[in-house]
Amino acid sequence: MKILLRALPFTGVAIVLLNGGAQAGTGKTLYSFLGGAYGGTPMAGVYVDGTDNLFGTLSDIYSKNKHENGIVYELKGQGGKWTQKTLHEFHPNKGDGARPTGALIPDGTGALYGTTFIGGQSGGGIVFKLAPPAGGRGAWSYSILYSFNANTEGNGTGGGLIFDSKGSLYLTHEGVGVQGYGTVSVLTPPAQGEAAWTNSTIYTFQGGADGDAPSGQPLVFDANGSLYGVTQLGGGGTLCSGGNGCGTVYKLTPPAQGSGPWTETILYAFTGGADGAMPNSNLVFDKNGNLFSTTYSGGTNNFGTLFELSPPANGQTNWTETVVHSFADNGSDGYWPQGNTIMTNTGNLLISALGGDAGGDGAIIQFTPPPGKGAWSQKLLYSFYGANGAQPIGMTLDPSGIIYGTTLFDYGVAFKVHP
Fold first, then answer.
1. pLDDT of 357-369, one tens digit each?
2. Chain Cα centroid distance, residue 150
3. CA distance 280 to 157
4. Contact of 307 with 292, CB cutoff 8 Å
5. How deeply is 168 buried, as exposed, middle or buried, from its count of CB atoms within 10 A (0-12, 13-18, 19+)?
């Protein structure tokens, strides 16, 4: 049985813990989602536009004794008070999607793009677009760009989208058909004079050494157009998922002539021990081409890791994993890192953890690299204690360095933190 982390419900470099676990940033709850007819349970962070309005999705809404399947919302702050507006409500019985799970991403016109985990004409989830009204007044225009066939193209559509330079969208699916292990798709916008987007499956996972159940977090491109991501399972290790493996970091290289199959390379397969297990966050590059992300489990304390993957040295072929930090449930650290990983323009890493610090309801932690060789330093930026939210699930960094995000538990809240 697969144990996936889509909603929630595993000898590294030393860390110097600063401030003894004290708060190092100032935070504020902007809005508490109300549940019921207003919706609740965000599964991802928010998009922040140029006027500090927040846009996101909620996976559940209960209206007139009927369980609907989520909304897209906008939060506006005026005079210190934030208000929620519903931009779209999903109705799967009308062929619409259900359970939006990913962060929204914008294009150059102000339109927003997102996914639903299930629903659509064939049950595999959809990719949708919301375009703002002309002049800023009136209803947003909603359209379904593509509805995936659960049996042939993918089901459990991943929340994370990424554009390439030509306007195509890349995303993942946890499975395909009854026994599938996941796929990676690209949606190509319609050619001139046409209306329909087209889908191509660029890789289908086999569930063994090549990986199983790709994370729904966004993929990342390198300068050559190759894609990088993680799978939560697979890889060939014996300690996780009945011996199916503890997850992988993979690379997909596009065909040399522009057409044909993409080629997968496994950069690292987790063993489930001190190196970590079940990665479920996005990967980020530093300026030297090293990759960073987290595992939900594993590590020396079995509460997850922050890891670095270094590319092969000249003449070598293997990437090298270094555990930057093993998380621990010790009252001053975070544990079970989940959500997205952010690298700031100064090279710091921002991590959200579902549990941690003395309150146990989650934390946002900053890791700063050493000026040369040595230990990374760790700083607790913000702790969650129930009343100000619990279990942070997604973060966004605005151009001024302010963190915006959401929490998952008890309908959820939207928050901001000044590091």
1. 766 899 999 999 9
2. 21
3. 15
4. yes
5. middle
Question: What's the alpha-carbon Rg for the chain, to the nearest Å?
Answer: 20
Q: By percentage, how much of the chain surpasses pLDDT 70?
A: 92
134 three-state secondary structure: helix
In which band, very low, low, confident or very high, does the pLDDT at 12 lie, cut at 50, 70 and 90? very low
The tokens for 243 are: 């011996």
Q: Are 361 and 389 within 8 A, CB to CB?
A: yes
E strands along 191-333, which residues?
198-204, 212-214, 220-221, 227-233, 248-253, 263-269, 277-279, 284-285, 291-297, 305-310, 320-326
pLDDT digits (tens, 9 = 90+) for 290-341: 999 999 999 999 999 999 999 998 888 899 999 999 999 888 899 999 989 9
Tokens of 250: 């993979």
How, if at all, do strands 71-78 and 54-58 pair? antiparallel
pLDDT at residue 65, as a whole number:
59
- What is the CB neighbour count within 10 angstroms for residue 178? 8
pLDDT of residue 283: 97
**What is the amino acid identity at position 370?**
P
280 phi and psi angles, rounded to 5 deg: -145, 20
Q: Give the angle 49-54-57 at the CA atoms, nearest 5°.
A: 120
pLDDT tier at 31, thresholds 50, 70, 90: very high
The span from the CA of 381 to the CA of 22, in Å, is 8
Question: Which residue shows structure tokens 């005079």?
Answer: 79
pTM, rounded to two decimals: 0.91
Residues in the chain: 419
Q: Are 37 and 62 in contact (CB under 8 A)?
A: yes
Reference 379, options 389, 369, 392, 393; nearest CA is 369
15-418: CATH superfamily: TolB, C-terminal domain (2.120.10.30)
Count of Cβ atoms closer than 10 Å to residue 317 Cβ: 7
